Amino acid sequence: MANWVSLAKGCKFWHHIGGYRTFSTLQAEVVTVGIDFGCKSSRIAVIESLVPKVISSEIGNLTPSYVTMIQPNSAVPCGWGLQHLDSVGKRIIVGEMAKRQILRHPSDVIFNIKKLIGKQFDDYDIEQMRKKVPFSIVEGPSGEAWVEIHGRKFSPVEMTQAIFAKLKDIIQMNQFCHVLKVVISVPTFFSGKQRQDIISAGNRAGFEILQLIDEPIAAALASTTVKEGLIVVFGMGSGSHSISVLHVSGTEFEIKAQFDDPSVGGDQFDDLLLEYVVREITRIHLVDIRGDKLVMMRLAEEVEKTKVRLSTQPTVEVSIPLLTGSAQGPIDLNITVSRKKFEDLIGHLVEQIQVNCQKMLKEAKLIDEDICEIIIMGGMARMPKIQRIVSEIFGKRLSTRVNPEEAIVIGSSLQAALIVEGHREMEKDFMPLSIGVKSAKGIFMRIIPRHTTLPTKRTLKGDRHVKTAVKKFPIREVALKLDSSNAVKTALLDWPMHTMVIRARLRNLAKLMMNTLVDVLSVRKHELPKNLCEDAVEAYDDLRMALDLDVDDYVLGCRMRAAQSVESKMLRWRLPSVSL
Fold it and tell me: What superkingdom does the record give (predicted)?
């Protein structure tokens, strides 16, 4: 958020709950800034003419969170737009210019840096990310996840610093200022290490960091009209979705309950739509393009645009001239995708979101009548299907006061202005995850619940002969549900190891199901109904595609359940009896 003054005393800005807030003009050329640092794009906002304003970059109200580096002595247009890093000098490209390089030099363009920051190289999430991104993720000096461009290693903090430096340039092109006082939004589940890395990157970029604010609180500050009561903030971006229950009292917000699911986000929606388009290309043109990385990247970029347009249009044409070639000549892609078809493809992900919302209501011990308002944030929250189910579950119409894509950055700017002018205290730190110990039976015993404000103290009395040991453990909080078929049973003793075992077993089971489908079809193909045979072939193709694309466990599980249902129908089917 921003708010700079140097002309007159006693100016004001308007806050929709607190009313007019006066600010002094004794701090000349000070700008208060709000930053929404995202996986795919970032936004900045200041207060201008008494209201928050999202600052435009060269392509609109966002800046792509993409970073690359030019080789020494390379000629680059608009060299004035390069960013400086101490390790390499002024050779860093950030934003749209970097994103445009991804088709020409995919291994040299870094994105999704928000998912890397504060993580270790051997973290399970990083292992999965390494399989999907075209750039190199390498191990840093202390075991952290770093990236490599042109043979040179960079830390996620350096990459984030470059993005923040780009945002700083955009602000200074719009505002004359010397000092930038900043509030940056972060996910609620970010660990202390991740938060500290964000602060470090901001300071290196030349910002004066006032505070990190949780994304749901920022969205609520920008959007809510409730002065006292409970509100629900539903957020969905490219990397995850979250549901938060907040208690509002004036301009003060307290998190009462929180649920984050990194397995369902815009990226998973993109993957399913991409998978469908690839199948259609194979069906229509008899060409398998999955082995061509450049073609797949071009297609993935167009598919992402299609997903966005389907939020406002009933049908969208996916069109790429000269996508690839075949024995018959060049292939132009022209496939029409309807919103209904897209909603069918992502049906199981929407069901998971629905279950998570219902689970949040149950865990928070709330009913519809307790909730005063529903706020949405993030680009994926614009999708009509998502908005419909969230509204139905929580029993309220969604607040449309602020653009969901800009709610976080506007709230961050408001928070910065309130802090600078003394109308709002700096928020206290809190525990992002629960802390506890492992019992002798391997059960987690929670001592300090997540969202507990700091400082705090808890005491646990135990046997004085108990052994204590420090062990490397993952930074996540999960609830495990055992598979009803007993195919996967695990205890949360060493989560990374057991996660790998689970994935291996799931994939073995998927391959076993594929073999079973082939065996049953080969034996009973001539007696089974045509539609059942087609269902079996489709289930087989879905499983094969899921294994080839290395989809996440939830998506694979859904494919396996569908295949199991078809397999069961095939085995139970009997020829109709003929009455004499």
Answer: Eukaryota
H helix runs in 20-136, sequence order:
96-99, 124-132
- 550 closest CA partner among 127, 139, 120, 39: 127
Higher pLDDT, 216 or 363: 216
Q: Which two tokens stand for residue 243?
A: 């549901």
For the chain, domain boundaries: 1-222+402-425, 267-342, 428-473, 495-572
**What residue type is assigned to position 494 of the chain?**
D
For residues 126 and 109, give the distance between their C-alpha atoms in angstroms, rounded to a whole number.
17
Q: Note the pLDDT of residue 579.
A: 42
> What number of other Cβ atoms are within 10 A of residue 243's Cβ?
25
The single residue listed with the structure tokens 């092109």 is: 173
* Residue 15 pLDDT greater than 70, yes or no: no
Pairing of strands 63-64, 371-377: unpaired
Q: Which two tokens stand for residue 227?
A: 């002065």
Q: Give the SS3 label for residue 126.
A: helix
Model confidence over 157-206: pLDDT tens digits? 999 999 999 999 999 888 767 788 999 999 988 888 999 999 999 999 99
Q: Cα(first)–Cα(last) distance of the chain, in Å? A: 83
Tell me which CATH code domain 267-342 carries: 3.90.640.10
Q: Of the given ranges (316-320, 482-486, 575-579), which has the lowest mean pLDDT?
A: 482-486
- Which tokens in the block code for residue 199? 């602060």
Of 196, 245, 195, 197, which is closest to residue 224 (Cα–Cα)?
A: 245
CATH number belonging to domain 1-222+402-425: 3.30.420.40
Q: Give yes or no for a cis peptide into 455 (omega within 30° of 0).
A: yes
> Any bridge partners for residue 341, and if so which?
none
- Global pTM reads 0.72
In the numeric block, the tokens 């069918």 are attached to: 344
